[in-house]
Every structure is written in structure tokens, then in C-alpha cells.
Amino acid sequence: MRRLADLLKEIRTMTGQEQYTKPRQQFSSGRELINAVKTRREEAQAFKALAQDVETELSTELDQYDPELIDGVRVLWISQGRAARDETAFRYALKTCHRLRAAGERMTDAAIIDAYEHAYNVAQRHGGDGRDSEMPPMRDRQTMARRVRGYVTQSKTDIGTSASPVRATSTERKALSTMGRRGGKKAAERWKDRESHYAQTELEKLADASKKRARKAKGTRLTIAGWVMNVESETGTWPTIAETMVEFSVSRETVKRALRSAGIELPRGRRKTSN
Description:
This protein has 275 residues and is mainly alpha-helical. 64% of the residues lie in helices and 3% in strands. The protein has a two-stranded antiparallel ribbon with strand order 1-2. A two-stranded antiparallel ribbon has the order 3-4. This is Replicase RepA.
């Protein structure tokens, strides 16, 4: 009896492919893992916005009239004389891939990587600002090319940087899930004893927050009521609820509560208009 894993190992050896290696734990603590996932999400969101900008830019087809292009590349700037090299290169690679698809040509890794390298070198040459070139290694550039092609062909929205994987591994996702469950259980255990130091401290925080909200709400009611009375004293007519809502950007119920707490009753019926 032969295991499937052994068979796959032999096939990889025969075809010259790299053997599978189980991913190692990359993070020393749960907090480090959570921070890494947050960073990945922020990077993915940033590059998603960048990709959408590229699609909008392509739809206008105004590149030939753009005086800001350098060797066909729109260089993004962090500050005067300092270019955002990675963002510039990624944007140009994405634009190139869109154009290849529109022309019915193959979106190969080589074409996308060439575009990335060209744009990176342009940004380095004109906006290096004394920095050494930090071109990502070829393996990361190949990963970037696959993500760019995937985004263009399938409208994927999980594009991230080429320097790190965008998605957490299965082990990392399980760790995050476990930490979430354990955290919830731990919090529930702490709240069981309402006389404990933890529960009393948290209850005090909640009470303080509730008092602050109450003071803020009371201040808003007094401000609204004061404004309504001030308008009446200066103009001789009461402002409507709708006018008060617009003045303070609040709801009708908020205005009604403010008037009720101040004992103000607005006149009913339509307002009389002067000839």
C-alpha cells in the first residue's frame, strides 16, 4: 500500500518540481499574528483602491496627452523628489495587464514582470532620493504577476503587496479563531463574579461613559432650546421643527425632546405669511 503523499513526492522528483514543505509558524505571539493580519488587510484595501484608479484611468485613454508621464510611466510621489516606487511599479504592471487583455494578447508572467521592473526603474531613476534600489526578489515578482493577472481576469479584490502573502495560512486562521473563542470564554468567566475587581472596574467605566453621554445629550438639548428661544426673541416668530433639524443636523425626535425638556410648545398650524 502506497500513500498518496509518497506518490506525489516521487512525481515532483521526476518532474523537477520543488517538494512541498509545511509552512512554519511565522509569528511568536497571538498579538503579532493579529497585527500582521490587520496590516495585510490595510495593504489589500490600498492596492484595491489603486487598481480601481487604474481602471478609471484606462477608461479615459488620455495617456498620450499626459505631460506627467516619464517614459510612459505615471510616477507616484511620496514627497518632492521621492517616488513611491512599489506603488508606481504595481500600478504600471496592472495597467499593462489590462491593455494586454484588451488587445487579446497573452497576459504572461514575463510581460507583467517586465512592466513592473520598467516602472520601478523609472521611479528609482527619477525619484530614488538617495535610496538604493530595493527591487523585490524574482519569486515575489512572480507572485505579484499572478495576482495582477487574477485581478484583471476575475476582478479579484484581494490584491496585496508582492513582499508578503495576502492571505493567512490555514494554521493562522485556526489560531485567530481559537484566540477569539478563548477571549470570549475568558471575558464571560470574568463577568460571572460581579463583585470581582475586574467586573467592578469595568462597571465603573461603563457608568462613567453613560454619564458622559447623558451630559452630552443634555447639553445638546439645552443648546437647541436656547437657539429656538433666541430666534423667537429676535424675530418674533418661532422656528419650525424642520428648520431646527437643519440648523443642528439632528432628528425630529431629538428636537422634540429638547423642546419638551425646556417646556417650549411651538404654535400649531401653518405659519402666517406677511404680504
